[in-house]
């Protein structure tokens, strides 16, 4: 679980540096998550995923339909879940 916290801390530190104008090219980038594939891999409904990562069901639907892309912490969590689906239980408790 510390890797999630480490990612969050690193992102916040990068945000501060970007705001100060000190950071340009070495920002951590995440792939756009295939939310539907991740959700199906986890065997959960849109509502269950939305509740686990604290977003609305409409947001999950928008991601799955390609109208919007997950950003920020949601993007990081989804990418982490795609690589380590066993962590889903930590988000859904």
Automatic annotation (TrEMBL):
<protein>
    <submittedName>
        <fullName>Conserved transcriptional regulatory protein</fullName>
    </submittedName>
</protein>
<keyword id="KW-0238">DNA-binding</keyword>
<keyword id="KW-0804">Transcription</keyword>
<dbReference type="Pfam" id="PF01381">
    <property type="entry name" value="HTH_3"/>
</dbReference>
<dbReference type="InterPro" id="IPR001387">
    <property type="entry name" value="Cro/C1-type_HTH"/>
</dbReference>
<keyword id="KW-0805">Transcription regulation</keyword>
<dbReference type="GO" id="GO:0003677">
    <property type="term" value="F:DNA binding"/>
</dbReference>
<dbReference type="InterPro" id="IPR010982">
    <property type="entry name" value="Lambda_DNA-bd_dom_sf"/>
</dbReference>
<feature type="domain" description="HTH cro/C1-type">
    <location>
        <begin position="35"/>
        <end position="88"/>
    </location>
</feature>
<dbReference type="InterPro" id="IPR052359">
    <property type="entry name" value="HTH-type_reg/antitoxin"/>
</dbReference>
<dbReference type="InterPro" id="IPR047761">
    <property type="entry name" value="NadS-like"/>
</dbReference>
